[in-house]
Amino acid sequence: MKTIFQSELKVVNIGLESFQQALAASGCQAVQLDWRPPLALSEKDRRTLALHRGAIDKANKKAVDIVLNGKPFLVGLEKAVDVLPGMRKNSVFHAGPPIGWERMCGPMRGAVIGALLYEGLARTPEEAEGLASSGAVAFSPCHEHGAVGPMAGVISPSMPVYVVKNEEHGNHAYCTLNEGLGKVLRYGAYGPEVIERLRWMAEVLYPALARAVAKVGRVDLKNIIAQALNMGDEVHNRNRAATSLFYRALAPAIVRTCPQPERAAQVLEFINSNDHSFLNLSMPASKACLDAARGVKDSSLVVAMARNGTDFGVRLAGTGDRWFTGPAPVPDALFFPGFTKEDANPDIGDSAITETNGLGGFAIAASPAIVQFVGGTSKDALDYTLQMYEISAAENNVYRIPSLDFRGTPTGIDAVKVVEKGILPFIDTGVAHKKPGIGQVGAGVVSAPAEPFERAVAALARSLDRATRRPGRQRRPEGRPGRRPLGRGR
Amino acid sequence: MKTIFQSELKVVNIGLESFQQALAASGCQAVQLDWRPPLALSEKDRRTLALHRGAIDKANKKAVDIVLNGKPFLVGLEKAVDVLPGMRKNSVFHAGPPIGWERMCGPMRGAVIGALLYEGLARTPEEAEGLASSGAVAFSPCHEHGAVGPMAGVISPSMPVYVVKNEEHGNHAYCTLNEGLGKVLRYGAYGPEVIERLRWMAEVLYPALARAVAKVGRVDLKNIIAQALNMGDEVHNRNRAATSLFYRALAPAIVRTCPQPERAAQVLEFINSNDHSFLNLSMPASKACLDAARGVKDSSLVVAMARNGTDFGVRLAGTGDRWFTGPAPVPDALFFPGFTKEDANPDIGDSAITETNGLGGFAIAASPAIVQFVGGTSKDALDYTLQMYEISAAENNVYRIPSLDFRGTPTGIDAVKVVEKGILPFIDTGVAHKKPGIGQVGAGVVSAPAEPFERAVAALARSLDRATRRPGRQRRPEGRPGRRPLGRGR
What we know:
The structure is a homodimer.
Chain A: H1 2-6, E1 10-13, H2 17-25, E2 29-32, H3 43-51, H4 53-68, E3 72-79, H5 80-83, E4 91-94, H6 106-118, H7 125-133, E5 138-141, E6 160-166, E7 172-176, H8 192-216, E8 219-220, H9 221-229, H10 240-257, H11 261-272, H12 279-291, E9 302-308, E10 311-316, E11 324-327, E12 332-335, E13 348-349, H13 353-356, H14 368-373, H15 378-389, E14 392-401, E15 407-413, H16 415-421, E16 426-432, E17 440-447, H17 451-469
Parallel strand pairs in A: 1-2, 4-5
Antiparallel strand pairs in A: 3-6, 3-8, 6-7, 9-10, 9-13, 10-11, 12-17, 14-15, 16-17
Helix pairs in contact in A: 3-17, 6-7, 6-8, 8-10, 8-11, 9-10, 10-11, 16-17
């Protein structure tokens, strides 16, 4: 005991970093152990997962290979009601997991009001609110109809959408066209200029792009994304390079197929004025690849992370159509002048589909400008990406990071690793004002909440457990490869 | 002595790295000291430079501030003969320091032949050779007429040129339009397809771009270059982002001002098909900034590095119009299939004006893809840029490197530092076949040769020495600030 109190104090701290920081500040030698407690999971579920680790890993390998081999191409543009599965005349699709009008956050309500005005189903915002709350509007998540939408993610029947085809698997994904920045529907604004822009997009932009895509046949989105990662984009919060490459690829065809040169010039100017144009293509490109991996039995691979501004929802490849949710967090952000975190709505949008696909926050080492934006360094950006390898099932075979010597981006979130390691997915995001009608107030980063992952993994564990207990099945010892049902193939 | 031979051998090696490598390979602990001998300089010149260090530093500060504050804008396009100072009907301007037909390398001869065919001054390559060797053609370096040209850098009277204005200082710089890759004039090819393309550029591309630039007024080249450095370009060997941004900025105006949409589409396609389009703008943008710093007395700042494929030439701000030359080295390159270093011409072109301006090889940390191209890693790219800070007069205030936390690029080569430290400028480059008529055979990197810097610094030392010895001047003690002539301002 005596020697302890005579020797210099050296502290190893585990847990809250502020303890270590306080000691270090007072001159004491204090080391912070890089360790996090695992997320909450019952002892029984933990045992089940350990028992089935081999089967889960095998299923994840299968699922992530499907994601990596996806070949997303832009093949056309159509009106939403003509192509979105299950869309009816009174449908309004939205970002994130299912939610009704009563629980919807401000910006999503604002976007719904705008969509009803745009569709001509209401003449005033008040009328739109009345209609939305009456039960006459059929709300449903974009994700359940092969679609994704940034921020509020509202898609109404007459909006034009990009049609993306995963040519490896034959499935399609859809997304609206990006409106630009400022007061826009996806951030909950619904003023006259918002509705007018949406009409111009349907009447001028949509036919011009549709003709141009028809002329070139198809646009290879995976190729554009791969190039953009070499050009400072992570194709979630930064899309300048991808937008440029998309614009370059399509401009000659836009000019050739537009009946009036002035219209062609306006279309080019609209895309040129908005570096986020490509976001509405990187999202369905990701969705098309991830949807192909849905339904892979026993897999803990995350196939969707999405937020409706109230709840953060997760779906796994191996847990069917179920959503696992928890409260959406408020992002750390750089706020536009005049706004603070007080104004910020909790995290919202389907755009985390990019992170789910090894892009966005997972590829942020390729885009240090984004981290600098919220006060970080290029080393922070590297560290975020390096940490995401810890919870990923694979390294991407096409999407690569120059500053990591072109190492593939961490791709395919393994929810079991998230829960075991207590490392949560890192997401780039925009920030909407919490009240309807205002719009964007900032941009920043956020970590996914723990609950959806805890719930998803618990559900997977229970389904594995049930499967093992079924008559005619044998329980296999720990560490052995997965079960093979007797008498039928996988 | 005994203890030396009993203890383990530990070696510190200075000089040739192979000694250290051989020891390390055999398991011996051997450290390589990062040291190079200074370049050759007489003891007298060395003393003179030491005596005037203060004056040189002050002059360099003045010169590099002029470079940093340059504001290069594309303000129009014209025919070379109408705008290039000193261009006559029989002029052919070329890259690098002065050279006559008899000493010209193969690719430059090829480009001259092509230019004479293009101008209609010869009907066959043989006729062109006869004319070129007859003395009837007035050869002169681009650099001596406010112009720069990539590779052979040949400019003949009827070629269209970009007109770049340095709005801070009022001076202009000029460069031809980029032809694309493959068999092109600047790499020494002169076949019918080369001449035909040059005609199309003069008849279709030139008027379309001229009208578009007139419509938008001017294009901010510094802004595009700054953005491109955040997007994986170093705007010498990689110009994909800068070309994209230039294309985006100009496309709507091209469409609006082109009488036929099909022509506009062809022009867009031509630029879109050639990621090097912007090289011919990053070069005159650099030239415009550096030319403004010419004539700053006592300054050892390099204002031009240029190669004619035979000689490598350097000009300093403080040594007037003189060129200091040495043999051009053969680059380390990745060769196209079927070619080897045997086929390579020594380094050629005015494009090292980008390195002279803190871009290209000096900014290669922003563009690790280029180093990977010749077998290096992203760390190598960082190291090259870090080493260039050692010989630079300043860090750029606008051009920044994301992976170095947006540190300004090393800008303004101080020839005295080059000689004192023995660190030679690092240059990205293309490689031409040494025979005329063939074209590009590879791309790679090269270090500038020592001789031009040794000669330039010796000349500067002699001019400083002469100035000190003039009647009415006093010799100042070492380390004191520079001389101020009595009775008149600087």
